[in-house]
Design goal:
- The complex is a heterodimer.
- Chain A is mainly alpha-helical.
- Chain A has one domain.
- Helix content of chain A is about 85%, strand content about 0%.
- By secondary structure, chain B is α+β, with helices and mostly antiparallel strands.
- Chain B has a single domain, classed as Alpha-Beta Plaits (2-Layer Sandwich).
- Chain B is about 20% helix and about 40% strand.
- The radius of gyration of chain B is 14 Å and the shape is globular.
- The termini of chain B are far apart.
- The chains are: A mainly alpha, B alpha+beta.
Chain lengths: ~200, ~100
């Protein structure tokens, strides 16, 4: 078990050096929230357009999930790599040494990859959860029920994200949950009104 | 080959890794029995640390490797004691 302790110690050290945990938490909450709201838009678009074929909902939903995932992964990687390179270069100028091959440089690279993965996977997975009713559409007697269940799952996911944010801020969990759910409800209502 | 028994280094290092982590890593090197690190100046991004190391047989290359791996740089070697025992610098008339 000593290797496991070493791994944990290494992770903690990299986290201390590159502040990975805090940034990853922020990206996770922000992008999962984005993912759910985007997929609500896709669902409402399909619903008000009267799409009855679940394959169309799944294919448009999955394409959106993949696009959000790739966008998150790519965007966060490039942004984080640029920001961290700048920080490392600045620190190198202070210490008058090359820091790329030190623990600080390695922690910085690990942070970039971790944050990019969190940024890409969180909207992808959050949106995928909302699409589950359409992946198991055979269990529903009517497609409209799959739509309602999906929208319900979207609101539930948003509530879960709110609880997560409440837990992080050590604030009122329910209040945070309600705030995130309101964003989903507003999105559903506006999509419904715009779609006629 | 003579044995280095005490080393005093003037270093510049980033705030992280902390001097606690640095002292821990230096203290487990072979031939080292005690480490003292004290900060005497703090800047926005870096800090100046005086590192005092004592032991039976201190390997300077290994010490340097740990300091550099943690992002630090040795500015100067301020004191070295080598031999069979530790002696302090002799008091002279000029002192």
């Amino acid at each position: 078990m000593s290797w496991f302790r070493d791994v944990l110690r290494g992770i903690r050290e990299y986290d201390n050096l590159a502040n990975i945990g805090e940034i990853a938490r922020r990206y996770f909450a922000m992008n999962a929230f984005d993912g759910v709201l985007t997929i609500i838009g896709v669902l409402m678009g399909n619903m008000v357009a009267g799409v009855e074929d679940p394959r169309i909902v799944v294919s448009t939903g999955m394409a959106t999930c993949v696009a959000m995932g790739i966008s998150g992964l790519w965007g966060a990687y490039l942004t984080e790599a640029a920001e961290r390179k700048r920080d490392l270069d600045q620190l190198s100028r202070y210490t008058l040494t090359e820091l790329n091959d030190t623990r600080i440089g390695r922690a910085s690279r690990v942070a970039t990859v971790t944050v990019a993965l969190v940024d890409g996977l969180s909207p992808f997975l959050a949106a995928l959860v909302v699409l589950i009713p359409f992946l198991t559409v055979g269990l529903f007697p009517a497609i409209s029920l799959a739509y309602y269940t999906s929208l319900g799952m979207a609101l539930l996911t948003l509530f879960g994200l709110g609880l997560f944010l409440g837990y992080i801020s050590r604030g009122n969990l329910i209040l945070y949950g309600v705030k995130t759910v309101i964003a989903g409800v507003v999105s559903i209502l506006i999509s419904f009104l715009v779609g006629g | 080959m003579g044995r280095i028994r005490r080393l005093v280094l003037d270093t510049l290092k980033p705030h992280e890794p902390s001097i606690i982590a640095m002292a821990e890593e230096l203290s487990v090197l072979e031939g080292i029995s005690a480490v003292n690190i004290s900060i005497y100046e703090i800047d926005r991004k870096v800090e100046n640390a005086k590192i005092t190391i004592e032991g039976e047989s201190i390997s300077y290359p290994l010490v340097l490797e740990v300091i550099e791996e943690m992002g630090g740089a040795v500015h100067s070697i301020d004191e070295v004691v080598a031999g069979k025992k530790i002696i302090d610098d002799a008091v002279t008339l000029q002192d």
